[in-house]
């Protein structure tokens, strides 16, 4: 009876952590990362900035958070997760609130950097680190998928709220209100719901019913007690780590181009209506929600290699849909559907794969480097695409992105195959 109660308590606490992470993704992350584009036209008009100069805010925020990611990951190995989340929430929400006081470009740039550093601490590094610690390999994907789905769920409501607020309150007061919302939600959730497991007995694992499954589960339980993970020093000496990181540079390149450039392509180049493009965007948002959840289940059910092959196919066909959209405009909805379903590959993929490839020993620091490499690709992708389109045209631009998809996924899939073999050999040697 006591064993059953302990199991239920462990199960309940683990999934309560997931709910806490979903809320963090929905509000603090959503405020800092998802609603800023709606402010652009209002701020540009109100402050007299050029669109190009104010848009640099997004690039600066991305670059600063990317550079800070390895440092944040290192700090997670030295400071309690609750304290890191608390500081992250204050920086994320406080930085966004501080836009209320900004009237010069340099002030907007600084506050964007502060906000994005905090957001990286709670979302890009924090949420995966917490989920990786609380869940075993058998259910980690599902838990991580649900946690990241919080961002999509929150975005549905935040977009409507911010649109109303900008009209009724103006951009300055809206910055203040949504910054306060971020702090009011993020700080209590962190204090009440975020913590690391006390020991391996609190880690949530899949329920197995057969004797064979129980033996397999016992083996995993024994493996969990073995400190098999890699140190940051070991990882830096591994060619597969650097190949893995390079793979995500290519993935970042195509993600950036496909996410940012499709509206201009559909409306400006193909001459489709704003309503049509809006429906394409809504389709993408809807299937993105399902993508994170489905991706988590796929990682748990199929394993890393097969799931990455699925993501490869989804992203590749999505890009092909854009290539042939001039002949069949309805393919734009195929792009939105498939690209939305594939978001798990880059939303939770770096975090999930870093955990199963390199373990928990210095997970945060290692993930910080992977996120930095992805951010480098993401920051460069849209510019690379724009340069190619200006010189050669859209067909060449999308074809280059398709090549980036092929290169990125082939590299990451090959790393997955090899790291699985290496880690199996590592575990066997540690069991002796």
Automatic annotation (TrEMBL):
Its taxonomic placement starts with: Bacteria, Bacillati, Bacillota, Clostridia, Peptostreptococcales
A Gene Ontology molecular function term for this protein is: transmembrane transporter activity
Q: Which organism is it from?
A: Romboutsia weinsteinii
Keywords of this entry: Membrane, Transmembrane, Transmembrane helix, Transport
Q: Does the keyword Transport apply?
A: yes
Q: Does the keyword Transmembrane apply?
A: yes
**What are the Major facilitator superfamily (MFS) profile domain coordinates in residue numbering?**
240-432
Q: Where in the cell is it found?
A: Cell membrane
Gene Ontology CC terms, in alphabetical order: plasma membrane
Q: Which N-terminal residues, if any, form the signal peptide?
A: none
CDD domains, per the entry:
MFS_YcxA_like
Q: Name one Pfam family in it.
A: MFS_1
Q: Where are the transmembrane segments?
A: 12-31, 51-76, 83-102, 108-131, 143-163, 175-194, 240-260, 272-295, 307-325, 331-353, 365-389, 395-417
**Bilayer disposition of the protein:** Multi-pass membrane protein
Q: What is its main location?
A: membrane
- What PROSITE patterns does this protein map onto? MFS, PROKAR_LIPOPROTEIN
Q: What is this protein called?
A: MFS transporter
């Amino acid at each position: 009876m006591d064993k059953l109660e302990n199991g239920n308590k462990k199960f309940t606490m683990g999934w309560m952590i997931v709910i806490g992470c979903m809320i963090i993704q929905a509000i603090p992350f959503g405020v800092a990362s998802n609603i800023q584009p709606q402010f652009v036209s209002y701020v540009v008009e109100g402050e007299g900035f050029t669109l190009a100069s104010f848009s640099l805010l997004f690039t600066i925020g991305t670059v600063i958070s990317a550079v800070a990611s390895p440092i944040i990951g290192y700090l997670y190995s030295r400071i309690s997760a609750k304290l890191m989340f608390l500081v992250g929430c204050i920086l994320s929400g406080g930085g966004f609130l501080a836009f209320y006081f900004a009237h010069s470009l340099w002030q907007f740039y600084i506050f964007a950097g502060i906000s994005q550093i905090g957001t990286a601490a709670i979302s890009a590094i924090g949420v995966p680190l917490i989920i990786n610690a609380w869940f075993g390999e058998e259910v980690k994907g599902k838990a991580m998928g649900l946690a990241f789905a919080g961002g999509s769920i929150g975005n549905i409501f935040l977009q409507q709220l911010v649109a109303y607020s900008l009209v009724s309150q103006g951009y300055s007061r809206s910055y203040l209100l949504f910054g306060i919302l971020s702090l009011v939600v993020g700080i209590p959730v962190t204090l009440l719901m975020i913590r690391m497991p006390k020991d391996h007995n609190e880690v949530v694992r899949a329920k197995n019913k057969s004797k064979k499954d129980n033996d397999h589960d016992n083996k995993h339980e024994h493996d969990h007690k073995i400190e098999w993970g890699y140190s940051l020093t070991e990882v830096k000496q591994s060619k597969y780590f650097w190949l893995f990181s390079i793979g995500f540079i290519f993935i970042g390149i195509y993600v950036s181009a496909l996410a940012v450039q499709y509206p201009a392509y559909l409306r400006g180049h193909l001459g489709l209506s704003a309503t049509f493009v809006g429906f394409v965007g809504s389709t993408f948002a809807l299937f993105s929600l399902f993508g994170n959840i489905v991706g988590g289940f796929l990682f748990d059910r199929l394993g890393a290699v097969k799931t990455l092959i699925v993501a490869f196919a989804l992203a590749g066909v999505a890009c092909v849909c854009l290539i042939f959209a001039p002949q069949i405009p309805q393919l734009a909805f195929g792009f939105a559907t498939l690209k939305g379903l594939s978001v798990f590959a880059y939303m939770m993929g770096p975090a999930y794969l870093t955990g199963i490839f390199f373990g928990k020993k210095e997970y945060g620091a290692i993930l910080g480097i992977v996120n930095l490499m992805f951010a480098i690709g993401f920051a460069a992708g849209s510019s690379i695409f724009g340069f190619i389109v200006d010189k050669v045209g859209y067909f060449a631009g999308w074809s280059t992105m398709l090549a980036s998809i092929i290169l990125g996924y082939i590299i990451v899939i090959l790393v997955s195959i090899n790291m699985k073999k290496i880690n199996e050999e590592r575990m066997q040697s540690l069991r002796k």
